[in-house]
UniProtKB/TrEMBL annotation:
Protein name: Glycosyltransferase family 2 protein
Transmembrane segments annotated in the record for this chain: 269-291, 303-323
Gene3D superfamilies in the cross-refs: Spore Coat Polysaccharide Biosynthesis Protein SpsA, Chain A
Organism: Phenylobacterium conjunctum
InterPro entries for this protein: Glyco_trans_2-like, Glycosyltransferase_2, Nucleotide-diphossugar_trans
Region (Disordered): 1-25
Stretches assigned to the Glycosyltransferase 2-like domain: 33-196
Comp. bias regions, Basic and acidic residues: 15-25
UniProtKB keywords: Membrane, Transmembrane, Transmembrane helix
């Protein structure tokens, strides 16, 4: 491996310059790839070879790989942009990615792209993935394999239905109702936003991408989908569907409760908060009244119209209020990128 070189001078000038240049160029955007390496020894060389020339650096993270991916990269990869980071023990895809973020940021990266090492991700779409961040329109971008039927022809049917279900659960738990395919690992993040994310307790295993969205939502970061088809070859997935259904459901529920409490009861108190409180109260009263009447009624005695209305009307009103709160939540998706603000703060603190 070539000796580590300090960041290029133009990277330093970008850090203090305008985050939204009038004529942005990909070769001046400070794009670095972060590639978690775990059992990808047979594919990693192709991923690096297909990396566009305008990418400034590549951080390969050997995540305690039992196949010795780090040794293979050190012995066989001659691309001068490659930096090898070895983790003493396996941290999972999330832990490896966060470690790669830190290393790429230290070396001067401004836009950090996470790419899997199994060659499933088509790097010809890399420009489309980073463009919204380069233009200052998003803080985080991610691939979406569900924007076209043609993109789904190569995807196994079980993955289509599984990803659709996970996508809806992620919308509820993260608050990003405008994005789909949350488990897609082809992502890009602005470096100043990545620093804030690294301070959070992000899940480091297979729930990483979805949990990252939850924490980005807490930061009010702007997330954008980019249509990118996946490629499937002879790679072997380390994910076992049966083993993650229960933990994923619990994590989604936990994130949803924390998000609602934080967003509508701690950081803000608005009309949706009132709708949630009133909707829950009306619904619980109606259900409790109806169940109490059924438990104490005389056998064979039919409910009067008044009893039916006393039970049904609060439930109807409560459900309507909860739907209104949901409507507010759907349109409360972050729309103003935060990274220009974060970078401005960094410049002011530096001065």
């Amino acid at each position: 491996m070539p000796p580590e070189a300090p960041p290029h001078r133009r990277t330093a000038s970008r850090r203090s310059g305008d985050p939204r240049p009038s004529d942005p160029r990909l070769d001046e955007a400070g794009v670095w790839l972060v590639i978690p390496c775990y059992k990808v020894k047979d594919h990693i060389a192709r991923v690096i070879a297909r990396t566009p020339a305008w990418v400034e650096g590549i951080v390969c993270v050997d995540d305690g790989c039992p196949e010795g991916s780090g040794d293979y990269i050190a012995a066989n990869i001659t691309d001068p942009r490659v930096r090898l980071l070895r983790l003493p023990e396996n941290r999972g895809v999330g832990g490896a990615t966060l470690a790669g973020y830190a290393e790429a940021d230290r070396l001067g990266g401004r836009i950090l792209v996470k790419v899997d090492g199994d060659d499933q991700m088509d790097l010809t779409y890399l420009g489309q993935l980073v463009a919204p961040i380069v233009l200052g329109e998003a803080d985080y971008t991610k691939g979406n394999r569900f924007t076209s039927i043609s993109h789904l022809t190569a995807m196994p049917r079980v993955r289509i239905f599984g990803n659709a279900a996970l996508s809806f659960a992620a919308k509820v738990s993260t608050g990003y109702w405008n994005v789909f395919d949350p488990t897609n690992g082809f992502t890009a993040i602005e470096a100043s936003v990545a620093r804030r994310v690294r301070e959070k307790r992000v899940s480091q295993r297979f729930f990483f991408e979805t949990d990252l969205l939850y924490h980005l939502g807490a930061l009010r970061a702007v997330v954008r989908d980019v249509p990118i088809p996946a490629r499937y070859g002879d790679e072997v997935s380390n994910l076992r569907i049966g083993a993650i259904v229960g933990p994923f459901a619990l994590k989604h529920l936990t994130n949803f409760v924390q998000r609602v409490l934080g967003q509508y009861f701690v950081r803000d108190f608005n009309i949706a908060t009132l709708e949630l409180i009133a909707g829950a109260a009306f619904s619980l009263f109606g259900l409790s009244y109806g169940l109490h009447w059924m438990a104490t009624r005389t056998p064979g005695h039919a409910a009067s119209a008044g009893v039916v209305m006393a039970a049904a009307l609060p439930v109807i009103v409560g459900v309507q209020l909860l739907l209104q709160a949901l409507h507010f939540d759907v349109f409360n998706v972050p729309s103003r990128p935060i990274h220009p603000y974060l970078r401005a703060i960094e410049r002011l603190e530096a001065d």
